[in-house]
Write a structure and sequence with these properties.
By secondary structure, this protein is α+β, with helices and mostly antiparallel strands. The protein is built from three helices and six strands; from the N terminus they run βββαββααβ. It folds into two domains: 38 residues, N-terminal domain of TfIIb, CATH 2.20.25; 99 residues, K homology (KH) domain (GMP Synthetase, Chain A, domain 3). The strands form two sheets. Strands 1-2-3 form a three-stranded antiparallel sheet, with no helix packed on it. Strand 4 and strand 5 form a beta hairpin. Helix 1 crosses helix 2. This is Putative redox protein.
């Protein structure tokens, strides 16, 4: 896996993934940025949410659950010192579908957290307290 980061101006950068996708990274105006892109730590949270969401959807599909939607709401706390690392992260999954089995959703979230999500496991090993919750929304 590879990535390239190119400084463009001020505290703005363009990050390019090894697969050729680009994203603007910038800081807030009070830190010299223009607010034209996500902050680096926001990207870390988004990556964690995407990694775990991918697992949850994949596991539920393999379990033949009739999933129609899944989104993750992520909240995080950072320490009040430099470096301002994450101390706590909570992922809340909202999974929608028809006749979903709550036990299967719980299992998918648990498997992602404990076995499959590389980002979550890596951050947990670094001392971040990561918690998970979920809700199931029945669609007719």
């Amino acid at each position: 896996m590879q990535a390239k980061i190119k400084w463009t101006d001020g505290v703005q950068f363009v990050a390019e993934s090894g697969s050729g996708h680009s994203i603007v990274v910038d800081g807030p105006p009070d830190k010299g940025g223009r607010n034209t892109g996500a902050r680096p730590m926001e990207l870390l949270l988004m990556g964690l949410g995407a990694c775990s969401s991918f697992d949850v959807v994949n596991i539920l599909q393999k379990a033949r659950q009739q999933i129609s939607d899944c989104h993750a709401e992520i909240t995080a706390e950072r320490v009040d010192e430099v470096p301002a690392v994450f101390s706590k992260i909570h992922l809340h999954f909202v999974v929608s579908g028809k006749e979903l089995k709550e036990k299967q959703v719980a299992k998918a979230v648990s498997l992602s957290a404990d076995k499959y999500c590389s980002a979550s496991i890596m951050l947990g090993k670094a001392g971040v307290e990561i918690t998970h919750s979920y809700e199931v929304v029945e669609q007719s």
